[in-house]
């Protein structure tokens, strides 16, 4: 089988790209031919298909704020609303490579849903993996400030306009809402043959938002745990992995350390404080409560350094305040034999079994988070016990072979696929 994988980045910038490259490697091992389609960028991985990639939306600066020019303004509008360049280039790629399916990971605001229509016009099956809530939320994360907000779930976007949900900009919000209304009018998402959701929670939200349940299949994310040797011993630190953003709840992990001072443990965060307003808030809090010796920033880590810091941790902390959609950090922790302490929200309630593979706590409740972390301090064998359970769960429920088999069935499309909503039941009738 030959499949085009479409994503607006072709370099690792976060969880979706880690999934993309893992999927491509695993799919090729399983005998598929995988062809990338993305946006041109100097940071992209090398590929012979780069000549087909779409033009960037603003002077090749895809992800940072760009200086104003009419060219840049046009590029942002084009990429956000309906990217004709991306559609043309995908059609050319399809005609030249003749794939069996297009597997879309993320296209909003860059490639745009024009690529869905383009693939269908070329007679190619479209499977769309959903990693956030862009179908219903102008911001993508169902957050208003730091509170969960589902006001736009059923297609009424006046709340987004009133609250200026896109970067507190009325112009940016209007542009995004206009694009969402256009997609409603031209029914482009009806061209998707099948939606794949990493969590059952996300599938539930798609159904609530009006996507027919028969067009959605729950396929959990995977990690190749065979390539990772677990380490069940640990050193005296808790670990926060990933981006330091309000959605990820970094501040609540830091606040928890106030109650754990003088306990002999520290919190390590894989990042560096920047000059951004959010990061300066974290810095101010640390200084105010004299936590400099208890909250340590390691800087950006990768390769062996990242592997080592995960492997030696007592546990991984995931204090998210949004509906996390099966974050890779939890699977990585499990693969290394590390339990996870996470917010009781979204897909995290599926991933983390309280008292078995880690602990759950109410979102934004830093006092309760501290109580969960203190359990590891009081019982030094607890990390090993829960870590072994976590590794087993990773091997049996989130392994590569199961994931590729399920996604391949979705991509073929010649079968009737029944999803029971449970990880251990996926029946394909030939």
CATH superfamily of the largest domain: Glycogen Phosphorylase B
- Give the structural class: alpha/beta
Q: What is the count of helical runs? A: 15
Please summarize the sheet with the most strands: 6 strands, parallel
Provide structural commentary:
It is built from 15 helices and 16 strands. The protein folds into 2 domains: 2-131 and 193-222 and 400-429, 3-Layer(aba) Sandwich (Rossmann fold); 225-397, 3-Layer(aba) Sandwich (Rossmann fold). It has helices at residues 15-29, 70-81, 84-97, 114-121, 158-163, 170-186, 200-208, 250-259, 277-288, 303-311, 328-335, 348-351, 366-378, 382-397, 400-412; strands at residues 2-7, 33-37, 101-106, 125-129, 143-144, 147-148, 194-197, 216-218, 237-240, 266-269, 295-297, 315-318, 340-343, 358-361, 416-419, 426-429. It is an alpha/beta fold and 430 residues long. The longest helix has 17 residues, at 170-186. The protein is 39% helix and 15% strand.
List the helices and strands and how they pair.
Blueprint: E1 2-7, H1 15-29, E2 33-37, H2 70-81, H3 84-97, E3 101-106, H4 114-121, E4 125-129, E5 143-144, E6 147-148, H5 158-163, H6 170-186, E7 194-197, H7 200-208, E8 216-218, E9 237-240, H8 250-259, E10 266-269, H9 277-288, E11 295-297, H10 303-311, E12 315-318, H11 328-335, E13 340-343, H12 348-351, E14 358-361, H13 366-378, H14 382-397, H15 400-412, E15 416-419, E16 426-429
Parallel strand pairs: 1-2, 1-3, 3-4, 4-7, 7-8, 9-10, 9-12, 10-11, 12-13, 13-14
Antiparallel strand pairs: 5-6, 15-16
Helix pairs in contact: 3-4, 8-13, 11-14
């Amino acid at each position: 089988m030959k499949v085009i994988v479409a994503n607006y980045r072709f370099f690792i910038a976060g969880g979706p790209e880690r999934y993309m490259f893992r999927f491509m490697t695993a799919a090729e091992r399983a005998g598929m031919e995988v062809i990338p389609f993305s946006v041109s960028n100097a940071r992209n991985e090398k590929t012979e298909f780069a000549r087909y990639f779409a033009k960037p939306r603003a002077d090749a600066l895809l992800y940072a704020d760009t200086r104003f020019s009419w060219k840049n303004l046009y590029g942002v509008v084009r990429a956000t609303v309906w990217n004709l360049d991306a559609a043309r280039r995908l059609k050319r790629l399809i005609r030249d490579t003749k794939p069996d399916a297009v597997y879309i990971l993320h296209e909003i605001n860059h490639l745009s849903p024009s690529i869905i229509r383009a693939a269908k016009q070329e007679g190619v099956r479209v499977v769309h993996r959903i990693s956030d809530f862009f179908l219903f939320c102008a911001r993508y994360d169902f957050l208003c400030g730091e509170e969960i907000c589902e006001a736009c779930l059923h297609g009424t976007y006046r709340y987004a306009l009133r609250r200026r949900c896109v970067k507190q900009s009325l112009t940016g919000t209007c542009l995004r809402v206009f694009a969402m209304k256009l997609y409603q009018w031209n029914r482009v998402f009806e061209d998707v043959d099948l939606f794949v959701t990493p969590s059952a929670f996300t599938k539930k939200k798609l159904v609530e938002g009006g996507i027919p349940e028969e067009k959605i299949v729950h396929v959990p994310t995977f990690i190749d745990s065979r390539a990772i040797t677990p380490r069940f011993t640990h050193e005296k630190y808790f670990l926060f992995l990933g981006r330091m953003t309000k959605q990820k709840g970094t501040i609540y992990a830091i606040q928890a350390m106030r109650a754990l001072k003088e306990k002999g443990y520290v919190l390590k965060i894989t990042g560096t404080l920047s000059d951004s307003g959010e990061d300066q808030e974290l810095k101010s809090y640390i200084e105010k409560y004299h936590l400099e010796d208890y909250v340590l920033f390691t800087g950006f880590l990768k390769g062996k350094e990242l592997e080592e810091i995960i492997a030696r941790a007592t546990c991984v902390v995931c204090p998210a305040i949004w509906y996390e959609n099966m974050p890779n950090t939890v699977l990585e922790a499990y693969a290394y034999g590390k339990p996870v302490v996470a917010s009781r929200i979204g897909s995290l309630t599926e991933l983390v079994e309280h008292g078995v593979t880690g602990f759950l706590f109410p979102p934004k409740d830093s006092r309760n988070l501290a109580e969960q972390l203190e359990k590891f301090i009081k019982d030094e064998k607890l990390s090993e016990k829960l870590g072994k359970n976590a590794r087993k769960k990773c091997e049996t429920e989130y392994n590569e072979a199961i994931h590729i088999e399920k996604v391949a069935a979705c991509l073929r499309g010649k079968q009737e696929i029944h999803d029971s909503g449970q990880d251990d039941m996926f029946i394909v009738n030939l």
